[in-house]
Amino acid sequence: MSVDRDARDSQLEVRVWRGGDEGRYQPFEVPRRDNQTVLDVVTWIQRHIDPTVSYRFACRVGMCGSCAMTVNGRPRWTCRTHVSKVAGDGKLEIAPLANMPVIKDLTVDMTPFFEKWQQADGVFTGSATRHDDVARIKPDMPARQAADAGIECINCGVCFAACDTVRWNSDYLGPAALNRAWTLANDTRDTANSERLAAISRDGGCHACHSHQSCEQHCPQALNPTAAIAGLKRLSMKAFIRGEIG
Fold first, then answer.
1. Which of 15, 52, 126, 134 has its C-alpha lying 20 to 30 A from 87's C-alpha?
2. What pLDDT digit, counting tens, does each position of 144-179 carry?
3. In this structure, how many other beta carbons lie within 10 angstroms of the beta carbon of residue 6?
4. Whether the model pTM is above 0.70
């Protein structure tokens, strides 16, 4: 009996999403290892059982964010998620990120995510040229500190997948795009703030956020897009009162 229990305890029961949006879960048994990550599990399945399993990853060390998937119902970076922390019962369910079209298996089409970035005018617009002196931004400036709070976003899409508002409002720009707009709104070198505030104040903009804070709870970088969105709400309201935006 002890041998059977040991054999059972050394295996993981893994269910992996296969196909597109209308796919299904496929079961696999994977050897359990010390310090094993969820990304290790998916890689083992592809290399030893089914080479057709599709997924996305690059750095494997939490720098690129491309390996994000839904693990036991929660969006996570799989390279930084240890099996021992999420599968105490030896069971894993791995699915693609929510709120984005599924290309195949665990790979999603992130086009909608990046389109929201563009719609939020999340691109720096400056007036200086290469011939001008480098702008001097003091680290203790309130605007600089506000930008610093959200600048470490690497566009992994975890907050977008976790957002309840994105789920029921396809026009909503989402936490990552609005967080980016907030960092630029606090960049004293940027010259397109009026246009940006107009962009994030339209239907589906910052005022569509219901402040559920799912983005903050799930962000692997410990950022708080909800706070950034609240800041945009204040800025846009002030701009509206001043007549700078309609």
1. 52
2. 899 898 999 999 999 999 999 999 999 999 999 999
3. 9
4. yes
Residues in CB range of 234: below 8 A, 6 or more apart: none
Given its phi and psi angles, is residue 19 left (phi above 0), alpha (psi -120 to 50 degrees) or beta?
Answer: left
Instruction: Give pLDDT, residue 219.
Output: 97
Q: 3-state SS of 91-141?
A: EEEEECCCCCCEEECCEECCHHHHHHHHHCCCCCCCCCCCCCCCCCCCCCC
Residue 232 CB-density burial (10 A; 0-12 exposed, 13-18 middle, 19+ buried):
buried
Burial zone of 116 (CB within 10 Å; 0-12 exposed, 13-18 middle, 19+ buried): buried
The one-letter amino acid code at 93 reads E
pLDDT for the residue numbered 244: 85
The residues near 171 (Cβ < 8 Å, ≥ 6 apart) are 203, 204, 208
| Structural domains in the chain plus CATH codes | 5-108 (3.10.20.30), 111-241 (1.10.1060.10)
Phi-psi region of 157 (alpha: psi -120 to 50; beta: other; left: phi over 0): left
Q: Please, how many CA atoms are within 13 Å of residue 56, restricted to the half-sphere of its CB?
A: 22
- SS3 state at 39: helix
Other Cβ atoms closer than 10 A to 103: 15
Amino acid at 116: K
